[in-house]
Design brief:
By secondary structure, the protein is an alpha/beta fold. It has 12 helices and 8 strands.
Length: 315
């Protein structure tokens, strides 16, 4: 891709990102701009800014750091909304930069097995479809395994994505044993020379014991075919759940050893700040974020872009 095509692509993503984060940036950058536009940056204003940041789910530690940075910049003096937004963006970027890591597919591991976990409704199946489209566009041979055998709708949805992307597909009837399906999938992917195997899983949290035992069985069975599998465990999180995302990370981390995060539905919430709280608490790599329905709306995570967009700054 030449430079101008790359610039056009980057500009298109920036527009999708800022559009998708509009509600979050309004809750953070917009609310702060309203607070400081006609006031000095005194202790009362700083306390109100801290409240705004906490309500936007950024987390207590990050909110406190931003307020400390603002106090150093211009305490008890007038400050422009743009200056405040710049400080917010800089502090948020500091938290996010260490976790903004791409998902690296090791070509030596064939198939590279990606186990995708998350609660039902988080966007797991759609994310698998979008990832398959990306990997197919890179010329990789992809297989999808419908490991959420409890939901016929999830199996059907994945099959549609497989047809659309030209990925191979393996499933069993609804209600079948998920571990058995995964065993067959890893075996078939090896035999067929597949580059990437994407495995969907059930995401019921109502009964954590059942979820844990099933996922642990899937992991055990998979290792009988490939002792190093899975090579990545991606947890898909729905941004609209806000603080609940923290407990979801804890649970899935315990059960499946999450290696990286994908955050979806950022366009449907004012609570995009939760990604900052997650980064501060768990320090897990954030590989992708989603800001809409189309394939192009799932993209690799950039700390700087996200920080500037959520603070309401122009590129």
């Amino acid at each position: 891709m030449n430079d101008s095509a790359t610039q056009t692509q980057n500009k298109g993503w920036w527009q999708r990102l800022t559009g998708g984060l509009k509600r979050s940036s309004s809750a953070i950058g917009g609310a702060i701009a309203d607070l400081v536009s006609k006031r000095k940056l005194d202790e009362e204003t700083l306390a109100e800014i801290e409240d705004v940041l906490i309500r936007a789910d950024l987390g207590l530690a990050t909110a406190a750091d931003i307020v400390s940075a603002l106090r150093e910049v211009r305490h008890d003096a007038a400050i422009s909304p743009e200056e405040v937004k710049a400080v917010v963006a800089a502090e948020v970027e500091k938290v996010l930069a260490p976790v903004a890591q791409p998902l690296v597919l090791d070509a030596a591991k064939k198939p590279f097995v990606v186990l995708v976990v998350g609660v039902n409704g988080s966007g797991k199946t759609t994310t698998i479809g979008k990832l398959a489209a990306k990997f197919r566009a890179e010329g990789r041979r992809v297989m999808m395994a419908a490991g959420d055998t409890f939901r016929a709708a999830a199996i059907d949805q994945l099959k549609i994505w497989a047809t659309r992307t030209g990925a191979e597909f393996i499933a069993r009837e609804a209600g079948a044993d998920a571990a058995g399906l995964v065993f067959d999938a890893v075996t078939a992917a090896k035999q067929r020379g597949v580059d990437v195997l994407l495995i969907d899983t059930a995401g019921r949290l109502q009964n954590r014991g059942e979820l844990m035992s099933e996922l642990q069985k899937v992991l055990r069975v998979m290792k009988k075919v490939d002792a190093a599998a899975p090579h990545a465990v991606l947890l898909v999180l729905d941004a609209t759940v806000g603080q609940n995302a923290l407990s979801q990370v804890e649970i899935f981390q315990k059960v499946a050893g999450v290696s990286g995060l994908v955050m979806t539905k950022l366009d449907g919430t004012a609570r995009g700040g939760i990604l900052v709280a997650l980064a501060a608490k768990f320090r897990l790599p954030v590989h992708f974020i989603g800001v809409g329905e189309s394939v192009e709306d799932l993209a690799s995570f950039s700390a700087r872009d996200f920080a500037r967009a959520i603070a309401g700054l122009d590129d």
